[in-house]
Amino acid sequence: MDNWDRFQKYFLNYDLLHFGIDFSLIPFNEEWLSSKENLINLALNNMKEVENGSIANPDEKRMVGHYWLRNSLLAPNRELKEEIDNCIVSIKEFVNKIHLGEIQGTHGKFENLLCIGIGGSALGPQFIAHALSKNNNDKLRPYFLDNSDPDGIDFILNQLKPKLGQTLVVVISKSGTTPEPRNCMIETEAVYRSMGLNFNAHAVAITGVNSQLDNQALNGGWLKRFPMWDWVGGRTSELSAVGLLPASLQGIDIDSFLEGAKIMDQYTRPNDNNNNNNNNNNNNNKSIQQAQYFEDQKNEKKEETLNNISQFNQQNHSTITTPFIFTSPQTITNNSNLNLNSNSNSNSFNLSTNEINNQVILQIIAQNNQLQNELIEQKTRNSQLEIRIAELLATLYQITSQNNNQNNNQNNQNHCNLQILPKLNLNHIQNNHSNLNSF
């Protein structure tokens, strides 16, 4: 088997999830892989038993069920399914009230989010916050306290002090007695108190039912309490309230997050261990079908953006043409001849388009459309800013003109003042709108 054939057989690609693993570079042969088939089947069967609710922790007689968090239909009983579903609904309802300002801090609508936890209760939310942050467009800006270092605690709290009355605190601890998050909570509460603020009116708990923290939050009248289940370990708790609440508060789409994890679970439960290539192709076919939902959403967003721009320009006597030309994968296949050259150890190969996986083509198109979206959104923001500046200058001009009429005795001085106002370059603004069709 040459390098290209080996790559095609052992490269696993899930385009919908933007996920791929290249096993072809691992130096195993067919005989070695076949010799491990019994162990692979044993591992998959054990995993299936665990996911069906068998006791995985015999010392504490606990199940391990973080798999059910992204697909509650897999939960072993109706009660657990309802608990999972109700928790997600509760998260969305609470977050919506925070974002709308129906629930506010002492000094107004919440702008910052302080998460207090340790281990998986901090590392998971931190990772997602950094990886999926929208930079300055986050609904709430996230901060974290994940250890008892006094300087570290002071460093974070000093940043938050100017807007502590608009900072929502989420305390994450299954028992409520773990020293590190408890110490951080006590220190944070002391800072709120020193600034004349009621900590309880800014606090949310994610903890086990009837835990010490749960009782403290209940008796103290905290804003909300969310559950942590004993069948979810800290390091696998990201898709529970531990991770979903901070992510949703930050403005991350948790529905897509859960859906992606659900699809990944489906992809990583093969029925045929001997034919990875067929599994890969079948999964890629599934990926095309499942991608249609996300593609429809993306196209709806594009159409909405273009309609908004069109209405904006009509109001300002400008025109715009649609800057998007969509090309299907079939069109590329029928009309393109792509040659990919690779030299490694004196080996080279040329590929025609028909030999290229359609998933790669789809990915290129998706990335291209995403870049086009980002460009037009940036153009639109720039144009809107210019229009706003023009409006402000026009208002200033009107105010100055009114002052001129009211103060005829100072006409010359007012005339001099007008000379320093920037001239409105309306042609430049109009050109910027028209130039939206240039990409």
Q: Explain this structure to me?
A:
This protein has 439 residues and is of the alpha/beta class. 54% of the residues lie in helices and 9% in strands. The chain contains 15 helices and nine strands. It has helices spanning 3-10, 30-35, 37-51, 78-100, 120-131, 150-160, 179-194, 212-220, 241-250, 254-267, 276-315, 329-335, 358-406, 411-419, 426-434; strands at residues 11-14, 19-22, 55-57, 62-63, 112-116, 141-145, 167-172, 203-207, 224-227. The strands form three sheets. Strands 6-5-7-8-9 form a five-stranded parallel β-sheet, sandwiched between helices. α4 (78-100) runs parallel beside α9 (241-250) and α13 (358-406) packs antiparallel against α15. It starts with a helix and ends in a 5-residue tail after the last helix. Residues 275-279, 286-291, 317-356 and 411-439 have low confidence and may be disordered.
- How many separate helices? 15
Main sheet: strand order: 6-5-7-8-9
Distance between the termini: 45 Å
Q: How would you classify the helix and strand content by structural class? A: alpha/beta
| Overall average pLDDT | 77
Uncertain parts: 275-279, 286-291, 317-356, 411-439
Strand content: 5-15%
Task: Work out the radius of gyration.
Answer: 29 Å
Number of strands: 9
Output the helix-strand order. HEEHHEEHEHEHEHEHEHHHHHHH
Shape: flat
Largest sheet: 5 strands, parallel
Could you estimate the helical fraction of the residues in percent? 40-55%
